[in-house]
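Study both lines:
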Amino acid sequence: MSAMRLIRKFALGLLAAATAGALVGASAAGAATVQRLPLRSPSFDGTVWSVAFRGDNVYVGGSFSKAVVAGKTYPRTRLAAFNARTGALLDWAPAADNTVRGLATHGNSVYAVGDFSKVSGVKRDSLAELDATTGAVNAFSHEVGGSATTIGIGGGRLYLGGRFSTVDGTKRTNLAAFNLATGALDPRWAPTTDNRVEALAVTAGRVYLAGSFHKTNNVSNSLRLTAVDPVTGTLDKGFLPRPSAVVLAVAVDAAGNVYAGMGGQGGRAVAYTPTGRVRWTRVFDGDVQAITALGGVTYIGGHFDRACTTAKNGARGACTDGSVSRIKLAAAGQDGRLLDWAPQANGIAGVRTLATNEPLGVIVAGGEFTTMGGVTQKRLAVFG
C-alpha cells in the first residue's frame, strides 16, 4: 500500500471516530454528570414506582414489603423514607394496602397516590396525606372514581392525574386539583382528557399533562403532551408539540425547557422549548419511562438496553444505524448528545422513576432492577 493511501486511510479513520464521538460518548461543554456508582441507600424487595425529596430525606413508594440495609430486612409496606446524605433508613413507616404509584411533598406533608384503599388501617381511597415526620395519616380524604396514578404540587394546589371520572361524586375527567390549605376539591380547575394521564409537571404558569390521550379539553389534535393553566385549567395553545407516541414521563428545567419520555417503537427522550419546538431527540431500543434534569444534564430511565446513534430504529425498536450500550439509564447534554454516564442496571422493566435534588446534587432512580454496574442494588439507587 502506498504512503499516500496509508495517510488517506488513517485520516478517514480519524474522521469516523470523531463523527461517532459527536453522536455518543462525548461530554458536552459544561455538562458534568453525577457519578456512575451508586451511593449508599436501602434496597427494596419489590418495585419502586415513585420517589420524592423533602430536604435531605427521600420518600419512597411502590409495591414492596421490606427494605434491606446491609443484608438485614425491615418491614416497610409500600412506603418508606431514607436520608439522601447518609443513606440511612428512617423510622417513617406508614403502611398502604396496595401499590403506591406517585408521591409529592409539601411543608410537613407527604402526599401519596395509587391503588390503595387503606393506609395504616385508615380508609383512604387512592389518595392520602401523611405526616412527613411521624407517618400519621392526616384528615385529607377524598373518593376517586377510577384509578389515580400521578400527582404534582404548585401554587397552593395538589394536582391529580390518572384514569377516573369523578372525585367525591363530582365529575372530573382524568384530572383534578385540591386546595392545599383546606384540602377541598378545587371547584374551578377541571380540565379533561379523553384517555389516561400518565404524568404531571407543575410550574408557576403551566401544568404539563402527559399520557395516551388524544384530546385535552375536547380540543382536536391536542394529544399526549399538553399544558393547561394552573388556575383555570384552560388549554395553553402556545404549547402543542403533538408527539407521535404515548408520553410516560415529563419534566421541566429552571429555564422552562420541557423533557418527555416516550414509548412507541422503541422509546424516545425528547427536549422541547417552552413553545413546543423540538430541541433534540434521543432514540432507544425500549420505552423511556422516567426523565429529569439536573445541572444542564438530562437523565433518562426506562427498559431500554441500547441507545441508538441516530434517530432511526426499526422492528421492536431495534437501532438500525448503530448503537451503544445504555442499560436502563442514560444521560444527554444540553445539545442532546449522549454522554458517557452509563451505570448499567439490569432487568426487563428497568427504571420506573427519577427524581433530583439540586442543592444536594443527587438523583434517585427507582424501578425493578436488582443490580447496578454488576453490584447488587435492588430497586433503588442514589447517584451524586
Observations:
- The helical segments are 3-23.
- The CA atoms of residues 123 and 187 lie 24 Å apart.
